[in-house]
Amino acid sequence: METTHTTIDIKTVHECNRCLGGKTLHPQASLINLERPGWKGVAVKFEFYAILLFEDKAAGDGCCCGRRYYDFACATMVFLTPGEMFRMSSTNTLPDKGWLLAFHPDLLCRTSLRKHIDDYTFFHYRKEEALHLSQRETATVTGCLQHIEEELHQPIDSHTATILARHIQLLLDYCTRYYERQFITRENKNKTLLSKMEHLLDGYITAGQLQGGHLPTAEWCAGQLGLSAAYFADLLRMETGKTFAEYFQFKRLHAAKQLLLQPGNTPARVANRLGFPSVQYFTLLFKKLYGIAPGDYRCSVN
After folding, report:
1. Among residues 12, 102, 177, 273, which is most buried (max CB within 10 A)?
2. Are residues 166 and 77 in the same domain?
């Protein structure tokens, strides 16, 4: 473990156990009961996957990890990738009460979870985009952690890594379900965010910024909304069923219809203004979506 004035860098699961009072039952996985770790003010960096589960009152800041009145308030979960920096608040590195599940990427070798761990996009969410659980959801998650702890207390054999990985994957599958539920309970908030996104994209198009193929990215749009790119992508998919590229392509073609109605706007001029690489490509996409070539559409309306 390395310590600086601003960061505690924990490199192994064993170091994590030693620092937080846990027992090393397996060198690559541990479930640690957090009982006032005593780290104040600095950030912590785990060089392995880390999942935090804690009661909201354990945060000490009143409003925990982005929780609002429309969220459940029984418990909160935060998911960290290896090497990610984390600090609970300005005064606490970790919550005073809760659980920390730590597992090294090497544990997943030769398991199905290794192929699918990147599918759990919430590992790339910000702390403020944490998962907030109901009482029933908390009980289910706690049950998953208990199964992991039971397996950790078994003698290590050729089946240990597979069984641990399956328990962890089941936990992550439940968290996927609960995050989707959270998007539903945040429906009104999400509509506000999508409205802001529409305003951003309309301004981008109107300002002529698409000329030369300078298209807005999902990362840019997420940053403008104060969201992580992963959370923004999942929110957009939940609300519209589309990726950002698909959504913006549809919006760009809709803008093309409006521009074609204006006098003097030929398909070539519209294609150039909206950043399409060629009028032929623009025509192909327009016809595919609307069933008519842009030139024919312009003539039929005018």
Report:
1. 102
2. yes
Per-residue pLDDT at 95: 86
Distance CA 105, CA 84 (A): 14
Instruction: Name residues whose C-beta falls within 8 Å of residue 294's C-beta, 6 or more positions apart in sequence.
Output: 256, 260, 267, 270, 282, 283, 286, 287
Q: Which tokens sit at 209?
A: 């910024």
Domain that holds residue 277: 189-301
Shared domain for 8 and 82, answered yes or no, is yes
**Dmax over Cα atoms in the chain, in whole Å?**
79
Give pTM, 2 decimals: 0.91
The pLDDT score that the predictor gives to residue 56 is 67
Q: What CATH number does the domain containing 243 carry?
A: 1.10.10.60
Q: Are residues 65 and 79 in the same domain?
A: yes
Percent of the chain exceeding pLDDT 70 equals 94
* Domains contained in the chain, number: 2
Q: Which residues of the chain have pLDDT under 70?
A: 1-5, 36-38, 56-63, 301-302
The residue out of 169, 185, 201 marking a domain boundary is: 185
Q: DSSP label at 92?
A: B
